[in-house]
Amino acid sequence: MGTIIRELVEADESCELAGIVGIETMDTLAERAPEADVVIDFSHKDMLPHVEAYVHRTNAALVSGTTGYDEDEMARVRALGEGVPVIHSANYSLGVAVLRRLAAEAAAALDGFDIEIVETHHNQKVDAPSGTAKLLLDAVNPAGEFDPVYGREGMCGKRPAKEIGVHALRGGTVAGTHTVHFFGQDEEVALTHRATSRRIFAAGAVSAAKKIVSREAGFYSFDELMFG
């Protein structure tokens, strides 16, 4: 992702690349990385303290695509929005943003249907389920009245009505496929987004970076920034 984002920024005449920091040089981020108007972070959850320090030092806007944060870490990302404009999204694809909206509408319209979410990624992905699957889960379960079940095994019994299954598949070089299934009596509705390249996520992040630099301090969703 970092390599693709760098290529897109360098090819964009309206942008200037200030610098690149990786996991192996994370200690330089907070203290010695050059100042920028916006920082795009697709690194690792362990980089968060360094990202926080850099934002506090430079007042740079933050576009975060790092996944795997727990609730406390996400609260820290949101807190950065008190001083600078911040966006965090597990997926910067416009197609996924539309999928999330469609899934929310379908869940509201298909009352009583069983819902299952299946995500597939390459064999190098370290977290499961994907951040995008979690976004979709929130979309179909906004009030938290359904219980997520992450895979099933053994004599798990009859499927409860208030349950949403979330399943992670890993293999090969799959960039990312997400399907939300709605199972009713004698019918099924399935909504799928299939990424054939990670370039779509990088392009969305760069678009978000160009938009967020002109916003006031706050924590923004991808939908708010791109469609608001």
The succession of helices and strands, N to C, reads HHEHEHEHEHEEEEHEH
- The name of the CATH architecture of the largest domain is 3-Layer(aba) Sandwich
The CATH H-level superfamily of the largest domain is NAD(P)-binding Rossmann-like Domain
CATH topology of the largest domain: Rossmann fold
Given the structure, what is the number of helices? 8
Give the integer mean of the pLDDT values: 93
CATH class of the largest domain: Alpha Beta
How many β-strand runs? 9
> Order of strands across the widest beta sheet?
5-6-4-7-8
* Helix and strand composition category: alpha/beta
Instruction: Indicate the radius of gyration in whole angstroms.
Output: 19 Å
Note poorly predicted spans. none
Give descriptors for this structure.
4-stranded parallel sheet; Dihydrodipicolinate Reductase, domain 2; 228 residues; alpha/beta; 2 domains; Rossmann fold; 5-stranded mixed sheet
Could you characterize what this model shows?
The longest helix has 16 residues, at 94-109. 36% of the residues lie in helices and 23% in strands. It is built from eight helices and nine strands. The protein folds into two domains: 2-88 and 199-227, 3-Layer(aba) Sandwich (Rossmann fold); 94-195, 2-Layer Sandwich (Dihydrodipicolinate Reductase, domain 2), CATH 3.30.360. It has 228 residues and is an alpha/beta fold. Helix 3 links the parallel strand 1 and strand 2. Helix 3 (48-58) packs parallel to helix 4. (S)-2,3,4,5-tetrahydrodipicolinate binds at residues 122, 131-132. GO terms for molecular function: 4-hydroxy-tetrahydrodipicolinate reductase; NAD binding; NADP binding; oxidoreductase activity, acting on CH or CH2 groups, NAD or NADP as acceptor.
